[in-house]
Amino acid sequence: MTDDELWILSFYRTSEISGALFFGRLAKSLRPSEIQHDLSKHFADEAQHAWYWTSCIARLGAEPLRLQEAYQDQYFVTAGMPANLMEVLAITQIFERRVINQYALHSRVPGLQAEIKETLDRIMVDEKWHIEWVRAALKRMEPEYGESTIDATVRRFWEADQEVYRKTMLEHEARVQSVMRAREGQG
Ligand SMILES: [Fe+2]
Ligand SMILES: [Fe+2]
Q1: How far is the CA of 123 from the centre of ligand 2 (A)?
Q2: What tens digit of pLDDT does each residue of 5-34 get?
Q3: Distance (Å, rounded) from C-alpha 181 to C-alpha 187?
Q4: What does the CA dihedral 18, 22, 23, 26 come to, rounded to 10 degrees?
């Protein structure tokens, strides 16, 4: 595994841990509801994903790098803290889309190690469900918050995502490109 590959897998691991902690805290604070139910499964999934990456890195003979910031930390800096549960779900929907796109891109790298490919494929199944349940929950919130308010909120976080991606993901992107070039060279 190259330094860039180890950095990327460590970044995924850190990001999954941050997701698990964030959703776990939220699941703890909610009263019984369909959202509490689905969010509990969601945070359990993210905790599993952190473990899958930890295990994947170990199987590739390395140790995770300790990275300070997760991608989602930047969201709150750029878009502000979500003010209510609807805003949390809106930001979650945008974030989960970013994650699945990133994992899908990575899974198409030619000559990817079997350990990484398996981990990406396994996680993407769960990430698809994350997007689905959040979309359904936002739909059910329309009578309370109004469809246009929800759409505007999703839009606001989508713009923040673009901004965060530009600012902080340049490094990530450069590393992914370098991994792709290296793998293509080998294959
Ligand atoms: Fe995840
Ligand atoms: Fe997720």
Answers
A1: 8
A2: 999 999 999 999 999 999 999 999 999 999
A3: 10
A4: 170
pLDDT in tens, 53-109: 999 999 999 999 998 776 777 777 887 888 999 999 999 999 999 899 989 988 998
| Cα within 13 Å of Cα(165), Cβ side | 14
Instruction: Enter the tokens of residue 2.
Output: 């190259």
User: Is the separation of the CB atoms in 120 and 103 below 8 Å?
Assistant: yes
Tokens of 147: 């469809």
Structure token pair of residue 83:
């003010």
* Dist. CA 144 → ligand 1 center (Å): 29
- Residue 182: pLDDT band (50, 70, 90) is confident
Q: For residue 3, how far is its CA from the centre of ligand 2 (angstroms)?
A: 25
**Which residues have a Cβ under 8 Å from the Cβ of 141 and sit 6 or more positions away?**
85, 86, 89, 150
Of all ligands present, the nearest one to the C-alpha of 49 is: 1
Other CB atoms closer than 10 Å to residue 6's CB: what's the count? Answer: 17
2 Cα to the center of ligand 1, angstroms:
23
In the reported structure, the alpha carbon of residue 127 is separated from the centroid of ligand 1 by a whole-number distance in angstroms of 6
